[in-house]
Amino acid sequence: MLPDVDPKAALPPITAYYLMRAGRTALLPYFRPGDPAVADAIKGLAGKYSSVLLANHGPVVAGKDLEGAVYAIEELEETAKLHLLLRNLNPRHLSPSQVSELARYFDLPGHSHSDDHE
User: Which residues form a coiled coil (predicted)?
Assistant: First the structure.
């Protein structure tokens, strides 16, 4: 994993669709495969995040239905690719006010009116 990743915002808000479909993405530390503690760690994020990256494993996403979860994982994957491709190129992310506007308009999980996460 990349050492400079914020566990509360593993990916930056590059596109509006990333926030609308995948929401903010948390990064959980490594758990060995089959460790029951990973379930508790994920449950602890319910209502705050719609997508989670499990360090050295992969993503977990939630959606209102199967179609929503498919869109979420596709958007998460594309945003992760963009993030890695654009590293060190100083890409323009959505501003905190743009993120707040999307959060209010689309009632995004884990965002309050005072949350301004890049």
Answer: none
